[in-house]
Amino acid sequence: DYHERCVQCSEVNWGLTDGGRFYCRTCHNVTERTREVVNSALTLNTRIQTISKGLRKQEKNDEGLEWYVCEGFQFVLRKQAEALEALGVCPQMKDEILCNFWRRYLQKSQQAYCNRPAGESIKVLSGCESSTDMDSEPERPSLLHLLSLSESDGDPLTDCSLGSSTGKVSESTSVCSGSVDGSLHFMKNQKDKLRMSMPMTLSFCYMALLWLRESMTLSDLLRFVVEGHIPYLNVFQCFPEKMKLYGLDLKIFCVESWPVYEEVYNKMLHLAAFLELPRFPDITDSCFLHPDMLCMKYLMEANLPDELHNWTCRVVKKIHIGEVDFLTFVPGNKSTRKVKYDVLAAAVIVVVLKLLFLLDDNYEWLLSDFAEERNKNNKEDGPYFEFKKWYKVLKKSLDVEQKKMDEEKAKCLWRCEKPLFYSAKKKSKVLKRRQIVVNLQHQFGKLSGSWQPAEKPNPSSFQLNWSEDNTDGSCFHGHSLKGILQEKCGLLTVMNPDYWLCTVKLCAEKFCGHLAHYRDLDFPASYHFVLRLFSFLLRIQPSYIHEEVCAIEHKLFNKKLYKKPKYKPGQRK
Amino acid sequence: SHKHKLDFWKSKDMCLNYIQDAMLQKQWKRAAEFLTFYIESLEKDFSTEYMGPSEMIWRIGTEILCHCSHSNMKEFNSFIEQMKTLGVKRYLKVCLEHAFHLLCNGRTDEAYQSLSLAESWRFGEQTTAQDKELKLIQAYRGLLDYYNWSKQKQVLLEYDKNGFEDLSVEQEMHNSFRKAAVSLKEIIQIPGVWDFFVQCYVDMLEFYGDHEEARQVLSEYAYNSKFPANPNAHVYLYQFLKRHGEPKKSLISVLKILHDIVPCHELMIDFHAMLQKSKKRKKRRLGLEVIFAALDYAGWKENVKAWSCLAGQVKQITISEKHLEWLKQEWNSRKDWWPAFHFSRYLAKRNWQENESLAYEKALVAGILLGKDCKYFKYVSHQGCKDQKKKFRTLKKFMNKHSSVYLRISG
């Protein structure tokens, strides 16, 4: 407690203002001294404040409140969860699952909700301008006291709340960033503590979606992000006005690249292990994420006959990838290969296409001609599926959509109204630049006839839609595979006796990170096309699908590969 | 570089591609549309690259505004003003190009103001770094001063005609001269191609009667080896000397150099005429060389005057029977290709159809050099005699008389 004599009246009669400063009760002189909280029990209640209420102590220099990086991320997560809810995800996700994951993360990374404050041994960083006040207040500690609550007993607030530290913060940290610990965020070299980042917010979301077994794959989620339905780019715009963002904060919260599937996925795996989560809820065959379900969806989207679904189910069954234990996510279990549900389903379809059509740039066209012939005499049944027709329709659509997507990418606007600057000195320059940008945009916008950023497409689960009502025959869902199958012993089987493997041997994932490598030149054009199609639908690189295809093939032809074969499957010429 | 790791830059690069495509196809609206999306890269313009976003936007924006029908000068000017603020290192360049644009749109006064303003710009080290642009700005400002001088001169001449006098205009005119002279003189001292500047400067000097300075300037411009070889420099000098009645000797020495640089220059005809009139054998020999050299060029193939010069000299040599070896020397390097180049049967037909005088002159030359049995001469003289044109009959007779000359030439 403070026992100095008051400068004005020489009394020792101190009280605390709302802002946490000492004031003299006698003459009402307010000092710059602030009170540090020592008693954690006291802080248990006083410190829990919701950020949205904005009750903050220590407004510094009228420039805004103190805020911590993890608070920023909390905002982001909340916004994302709200957006997901608007897309149809159940409210549980926001109120319970995501919330709890986040709290657990804060706990594990010792940023909050734990006994030992994380910042104990972290000193004020060098390299920033030091405040001249440093020497005048020797009692001010150089430590950052972050939260020190005991484990929360599940107070289910709808807002995840963070206590605030009333520990005095050295002013020099705040020069480099609007947030209190922005610079620390990068200094922490603690891989095991899993530093938070913008892509990782999506990992959190996906993890929550997976826990709830929602009908949204990771590729769907990332697509919604790019389309702007889920806050990601410039999400800091929704931070409260007083939470000033500058300097190193920009590196943390300012996004300049779209999230990459692999990165988000791998971070999720690390995160789940880090949080020591238990086995996730079972993925059964009634779940959206089950390959049977996803295959059905992708078959529809790829405008392929419904009948192919029988085949995908057969493949799924044969290689046991439909089983609960295979599909269900068990964090931390390093021995099992983790399942990417969307990629898996797409790969299954590719394998089925290879089984039926071979896709060696020759056979599929012969087969198509054959089906065409049969179609001529085909009066009673529905039309037989002809690969050629399908290819033409799909190629055209794919080219159109790809072109649209490319143009939209080029028209992507990364900046927003909220100015971003690295330091207060640069602020005026940045604002001037921004003004010029806005002026120029208006000037050329008028010239081009219309100035508006690309319209956000309505969120939809399907990117390509095919309707059976189209009389031009461009929908192949109802087409029959009979045209390319033959009867054998009362069963319909493929006419194609051959198969070519994408790779004879799988790579060791541990060493090169991949199971297989996709080199453009080595494969038939039809195979490239099919990969390109699913690559577009899932918004991922074709190599990911290719890898999965290799894995599936190796499971499927396991016996043939590993016995001494008379019949040797391999690359077809 | 880090640039390429970010999708931000990838999408901006793609955007640039679309802009470029649109511009190449003259789809200005579409280019403008994509430019609006590119513009925000200004906020990340920390580039040390050769061409960063601000320069791109300046150049692309200028093109689009020039071509877009809805835009006007006011918009263009405001655009340029913003561009000027974007990059100190480019400031003078932008000013200069802006001035050009204003001039192209006939706004000489605005251009003058802009150049004057730019001329007085100082920015520490940048001033020396952008020295070239500064000099150009001064030069063009000087040029505009000349333009003003010229206008004022016209006004005075008009007044003069009508018997008026106007001291203020005269004063202005002299001021403009002084300003222009200083700048122009300075710029033409820098090795380079300053044709127009030189001409303007000389024009003023001549008006004020400073012929000595004018001659000095033109000689420097033509003969200083530091300057790039420039045929025009010699032409200007020649014209100047001719204007001032210089002796033929000087004129010839100037044109000799022109002949060396540009054998196909149009002044070669004048040169030939001058040389032919000379009493000195060497000069006349040179004349032959000059006219043959000119006709080596495709652009001269149908030049009647040139052919008549050559024909004239060839005829003269034939008649006098002196200096046939000149013809031999000139013909030696040409006998393999001139026949196909000038004297084919096809050309004979065409020349006859299109231009009788041309055919006549050529036929004469062909007859002497290739003999009267050559395709060209045969066809043309036959046609000419058929049409009962007197001169062709004369020609035929002439050729019969000198039918063996070609042997002595080609042998």
UniProtKB/TrEMBL annotation, chain A:
The UniProt entry lists the main location of this chain as nucleus
Q: Which UniProt keywords apply?
A: DNA-binding, Metal-binding, Nucleus, Transcription, Transcription regulation, Zinc, Zinc-finger
Q: Where would you find this protein in the cell?
A: Nucleus, Nucleolus
Q: Name one GO biological process term.
A: nucleolar large rRNA transcription by RNA polymerase I
Q: How is this protein annotated for GO cellular component?
A: RNA polymerase I core factor complex; RNA polymerase transcription factor SL1 complex
Instruction: List each copy of the Rrn7/TAF1B N-terminal cyclin domain by range.
Output: 73-240
A single MF term (Gene Ontology): RNA polymerase I core promoter sequence-specific DNA binding
Q: Which residues form the RRN7-type domain?
A: 2-32
Q: Which InterPro entries match?
A: Rrn7_cyclin_C, Rrn7_cyclin_N, TAF1B/Rrn7, TF_Rrn7_Zf
Source taxon at top rank: Eukaryota
Residue ranges occupied by any Rrn7/TAF1B C-terminal cyclin domain in the UniProt entry:
257-447
- State the family it belongs to: Belongs to the RRN7/TAF1B family.
What protein name applies here? TATA box-binding protein-associated factor RNA polymerase I subunit B
What species is this protein from? Answer: Tinamus guttatus (White-throated tinamou)
Automatic annotation (TrEMBL), chain B:
- Give GO BP annotations, semicolon-separated: transcription by RNA polymerase I
Gene Ontology CC terms, in alphabetical order: RNA polymerase I transcription regulator complex
The protein's matches in Pfam families, at most eight in alphabetical order, are given as: TAF1_subA
Q: Which residues cross the membrane?
A: none
PANTHER family for this protein: TATA BOX-BINDING PROTEIN ASSOCIATED FACTOR RNA POLYMERASE I SUBUNIT A, TATA BOX-BINDING PROTEIN-ASSOCIATED FACTOR RNA POLYMERASE I SUBUNIT A
Q: What is this protein called?
A: TATA box-binding protein-associated factor RNA polymerase I subunit A
